[in-house]
Design a protein that fits this description.
heterodimer; A: 341 residues; alpha+beta; Methane Monooxygenase Hydroxylase, Chain G, domain 1; two-stranded antiparallel sheet; B: 730 residues; 5 domains; seven-stranded antiparallel sheet
Chain lengths: 341, 730
């Protein structure tokens, strides 16, 4: 099935996929959040981006939101399954510390997306979250809208093996689900991604709809090929020995940096400047590389069950190592907001 | 006397945790109030339960009148107490000091006396004395000002609230001052209509509660007085009373199902409890799905609806699944909203059914037979190994069990059992089981059926995990029963041999549940198996050196499970259970727990005799015999030869024993326990007369030894059914 070819039955009033992202970003920007761009590395979830993983450590308040394409190689379905994707879009929000009215703010954000809560059934159902490879966990809910899970709402308790104080609230909106729900389409690929308000002729060549709805570009138009090709690569072609080579090599470099970082941070003679300039952020990127490679190896069926725990442990050593060093580095001196002397 | 209300306002508490917390908060506050004498509890005090699962309480009555009641919704835990004292009376309290002997030296007060006088604010001359068993002590009467309820509650209540135990807690405030299930967002604390000035988790108590998130909105709800709590919340679209919400939901499910001719919603008490604790203002909508999905097995459809969507299934007049579902909403909407919500829920359900159908079809490409080797890569336990290894061990145990019961004349389809055991775990590699883990076993059974492996094999695989809980049925076929036993026994053996047995409340591998399953299968099947026979087939026992003590630990464990079964599941009196299982130390009952069905039969027959005066008297006599034998043992008196008895009463008791022993033994063998017990009870006149006239511990050693041998003979001959001395006769 090539879902992209079927004509979407878009409700005229429904927001496009990109409108939804705009609205969410605007909503949270108006409430004081930093808006970040998606992180430019492969991650399995918005949580893994440094804007979450490292910012939640330490005492400094922070509010940030970003739309993060999240890769889960094993979830790919060659673009054939209407509900499953190799790469989906999370709108990730961190509120550190969480305001007392965080749930109310969240509900307002849904209304900003055009969801009239008076016409729907909304429940906060227990769903706790953990990322073992990141030494991170929290408690929270899956937010159910008419039986559909649209958001994971988590109060982070630990990250990188460190207790958080203050804790933070993490809201992860599943954008494809929300869009499919609001546009009332049965396939993710039928989601209208963008609509050209001025185009007189829809892309299917018909003229009847014209300016009323504008020409549309669907999710399938934008992403289907990527789903197909990455599924082929992830499941069939990714070279397992080379993936292991990459893994080992990234791990070795991250380890080397961590050893140096720990020596430096323990060295009382090292100046604050020396400590602050030590490249822990790059070390974290190397750990993320390993995490993605693990996911690829997993999708290739190259990791046996017995190996699995061990490999997760290796990634965890890196992420937790970076987190601990990063917390120390931050404590050396308050992180500079600009260029230091 | 006032009404006291406490409402803890929370972000949504997990549904599974609410009932226990509601119960615990009520108990904690009641204990606090009675400890501090803020309530008078003289009279008949009874914990009551209208809305919570059995064993929990949500109310308290005193002399028949309700004095406390608790409420809960996902967003609040509430207790309401009647007749609370506002202020304790001032009281004179006696304070005791040092002994008089230490208070004066040479007629002059010592520093100890001075210090005591200072402490109580009096001069030494004003001190009084009090007579105590150990002598005279200084004392004084001190005026204690009665504290107010508000003072006490402000000081003590926060500790009680924050002391409520949760399966999983969280921090939310900076500095991590407290942990609770979810953040506390408001507190209402009222004494009648007055706010009690107290602070819990940084929240000052007030009178402002909240209503339903959407129907009422986020504006505050003013509780003007404690007694108006429930009705005020109702106006804000919150039904605080759990039993009322349950009633509303059941009625609404009935009404919605009735709109389809002949249809019923499928009863599911656990799901009702879940939705009761997920809603503040429940309503129900009926939705539908395409008929084509009914081709999927009912088990899959129901699991998707129940476990993943929390929907109730609907069945037609014949009990067959209908293409409909019932969703319990936490809101109330007009027709347009209902259409939207119905549409949305149906959309999600359809997607899930589609997935399930996809997985079903996908799984058929690799039949179970081709999945056996895949079990090498599915870990059973990291120190033990894979499910393949477990499967091999299961096969060995199942084989042993067949050998055991075939000797006793039972018939088993050995080939089918072997196939079922070998394939039992292969569905762990199926996509559908990965998606719906709760359906493991069931999916395997369904696949075995469609793959033509035969009904016996399919049934055995299908039922292997049943009973998962006490209320579940046992596998209907012998092969299924054996597979179920072998699988559980293997797990228990592995874990015990690695020191991973349950301790206290910790049972991470659910071994108690596994053993309960075995006990239940033994109790309710026709399998001629004893527990010691089963334990004998545990492979880990082969390595006797490494696993020293394993057998006796397994025996103790199963004895405890049989005890649990008789007492907590079958409801036999604890003394009857002790009698049946046998007292480990002094009993003559050997392995009373070994044959489960026999233990049940004995417990039943003894229970039926508890009303008989002769039986009770005999039980008392057995207790007396045991005490005498114990005394004799302590004093080093040896048993003699009962041929040496002299008194007529002793001789007639001996002949009574001799004439009954064979009959009792025969009846016992035929498991005619009721008749055996009746026969034993006929010993009573002889026993009574004997104890009236004969001094057992006679100064004459030979005579004493003979007497002891005689009464010991009673235990030896008549204790094989039960240790009657355990029966409580008073």
């Amino acid at each position: 099935m090539l879902a992209a070819q079927s004509a979407p039955t878009l409700k005229p009033s429904a927001l496009t996929f990109q409108d939804l992202l705009f609205r969410l970003q605007a909503f949270w920007a108006q409430r004081g959040c930093v808006l970040q761009q998606p992180y430019d590395l492969e991650v399995g979830a918005g949580t893994m981006c440094p804007e979450t993983f490292l910012r939640v450590l330490g005492p400094k308040p922070y509010k940030v939101g970003y739309a993060q394409p999240s890769r889960r190689p094993a979830d790919g379905r060659y673009g054939e399954n209407p509900n499953r994707l190799f790469k989906h879009t999370q709108f990730q929000l961190i509120l550190k510390p969480p305001p007392a009215n965080v749930q109310e703010l969240y509900l307002e954000s849904l209304e900003a997306l055009g969801i009239d809560l008076k016409q729907h059934d909304l429940k906060f159902e227990e769903d706790n979250w953990e990322w073992p490879a990141g030494g991170a966990w929290g408690v929270g809910w899956q937010v159910m809208l008419d039986g559909l899970e649209i958001t994971q709402f988590t109060y982070f308790q630990q990250c990188g093996g460190l207790d958080l104080d203050p804790i933070c609230a993490e809201l992860t909106y599943g954008m494809e689900r929300i869009a499919a729900f609001l546009q009332d389409v049965d396939s993710i690929y039928d989601i209208v991604w963008a609509r050209d308000p001025d185009a007189g002729v829809p892309r299917d060549g018909s003229t009847s709809r014209g300016r009323e709805t504008g020409a549309t570009v669907t999710y399938g138009d934008v992403r289907w090929e990527e789903e197909l090709q990455f599924s082929v690569y992830n499941f069939e072609m990714a070279d397992v020995p080379r993936l292991w080579e990459h893994f080992n090599s990234y791990e070795a470099e991250a380890q080397l940096l961590l050893v140096q970082a720990n020596a430096l941070l323990a060295d009382e003679k090292a100046s604050p400047r020396e400590r602050r300039r030590f490249p822990l952020l790059p070390a974290y990127e190397l750990a993320l590389k390993c995490s993605n490679l693990f996911n690829l190896l997993d999708a290739r069926g190259a990791i046996s069950v017995t190996e699995r725990v061990g490999v997760i442990g290796r990634i965890r050593n890196l992420t937790v190592g970076v987190a601990k060093a990063y917390a120390l580095q931050q404590a050396v001196e308050a992180a500079p907001s600009g260029v230091s002397s | 006397m006032s009404d006291f209300l406490l409402e803890i306002g929370l972000e949504e508490v997990p549904a599974r945790m609410i009932a226990w917390a509601q119960h615990e908060l009520l108990k904690r506050v009641e204990l606090l109030l009675s400890r501090e004498r803020l309530v008078d509890r003289t009279g008949s005090l009874v914990w009551t339960n209208e809305g919570l699962p059995p064993g929990l309480h949500d109310g308290l009555s005193l002399n028949g009148a309700q004095v406390a009641k608790s409420f809960s919704t996902p967003r609040r835990l509430t207790v309401l107490f009647k007749d609370v004292v506002l202020k304790l009376d001032d009281a004179k309290e006696r304070v005791e000091g040092p002994p008089v002997s230490a208070a004066y030296k040479d007629g002059k007060p010592t520093p100890a006396a001075e210090a005591f006088a200072k402490k109580v604010g009096a001069s030494v001359g004003e001190l009084l004395t009090v007579e105590k068993p150990k002598g005279k002590y200084l004392c004084a009467y001190v005026e204690r000002k009665g504290r107010t309820a508000n003072e006490i509650l402000a000081a003590e209540l926060p500790k009680e609230v924050l002391g409520v135990s949760w399966p999983k807690n969280m921090y939310w405030r900076a500095g991590k001052p407290e942990r609770f299930v979810r953040p506390i967002r408001w507190v209402v604390a009222l004494m009648d209509s007055e706010v009690i000035p107290l602070t819990i988790a940084g929240i000052a108590a007030g009178r402002l509660s909240r209503g339903h998130r959407v129907l009422h909105g986020e504006g505050a709800v003013t509780i003007s007085s404690a007694s108006e709590y429930k009705e005020t919340l109702r106006k804000a679209f919150v039904i605080a009373d759990v039993s009322e919400r349950r009633h509303i939901i059941r009625k609404a499910l009935d009404a919605a199902a009735r709109t389809l001719p002949g249809a019923r919603w499928r009863e599911d008490a656990a799901l009702v409890e879940t939705v009761v604790h997920l809603t503040e203002w429940p309503t129900v909508i009926l939705g539908g799905f395409e008929r084509e999905y009914l081709e999927l097995p009912e088990e899959v459809l129901v699991t998707v609806m129940r476990d993943h969507q929390k929907y109730f299934a609907v069945e037609d007049a014949e009990g067959k699944l209908a293409p409909h579902f019932l969703a319990v909403l936490n809101t109330q909407v007009d027709a347009e909203g209902a259409a939207l919500i119905r549409h949305g829920n149906a959309r999600v359900l359809r997607a899930r059914f589609k997935d399930a159908r996809f997985f079903w079809d996908f799984d058929q490409k690799t039949p179970l037979r081709e999945r056996v080797n895949d079990l090498h890569s599915v870990t059973f336990h990291k120190d033990y190994g894979s499910y393949w290894k477990k499967t091999q061990a299961n096969l060995g145990i199942a084989n042993d069990i067949v050998d055991l019961i075939q000797v006793k004349g039972s018939t088993v389809d050995r080939g089918a059992l072997h196939a079922a055991t070998e394939l039992a775990k292969t569905d762990l590699t199926a996509e559908l089981v990965k998606e719906f883990t709760e359906l493991q076993g069931i999916i395997g059974g369904l696949y075995a059926r469609v793959q033509g492996l035969g009904e016996t094999v399919a049934q055995a695989i299908y039922w292997q995990y049943s009973p998962a809980s006490i209320g579940d049925p046992i596998p209907p076929s012998v092969e299924g029963q054996i597979l179920g036993i072998a699988d559980r026994l293997q797990t228990i053996g592995v874990m015990f041999s690695r020191g991973l047995e349950p301790t206290g409340s910790k049972d991470p591998f659910a071994l108690r549940r596994a053993a309960n399953g075995i006990v239940k299968i033994l109790a309710e099947s026709d399998l001629a198996l004893t527990i010691t026979e089963l334990i004998g087939s545990v492979p880990e026992l082969v390595n006797a050196v490494e696993n020293a003590g394993l057998e006796s630990r397994l025996r103790d464990f199963f004895r405890e499970r049989v005890q649990f079964w008789l007492r907590d599941v079958r409801g036999f009196r604890y003394d009857v259970v002790n009698a049946v299982l046998g007292n480990i130390e002094y009993g003559r009952v050997q392995l009373g727990w070994n044959d489960v069905r026999d233990a049940i039969k004995r417990a039943q027959d003894i229970t039926a005799k508890l009303g008989s005066a002769d039986f009770i008297a005999i039980s008392a006599a057995f207790k007396r015999i045991k005490n005498i034998l114990r005394q004799a043992e302590e004093r080093g008196y040896a048993l003699g030869n009962w041929a040496d008895i002299r008194a007529d009463e002793a001789k007639s008791l001996r002949s009574a024993i001799q004439s009954l022993a064979d009959g009792v033994a025969k009846l016992r063998e035929q498991r005619r326990y009721g008749e055996a017990l009746a026969l034993i009870a006929t010993l009573r006149p002889a026993v009574d007369t004997f104890f009236d006239k004969v001094m057992v511990l006679d100064p004459d050693e030979k005579l004493r030894g003979a007497n002891l041998a005689l009464i010991s003979g009673i235990l030896d001959n008549f204790s094989s059914i039960a240790d009657f001395s355990e029966i409580v006769t008073a």
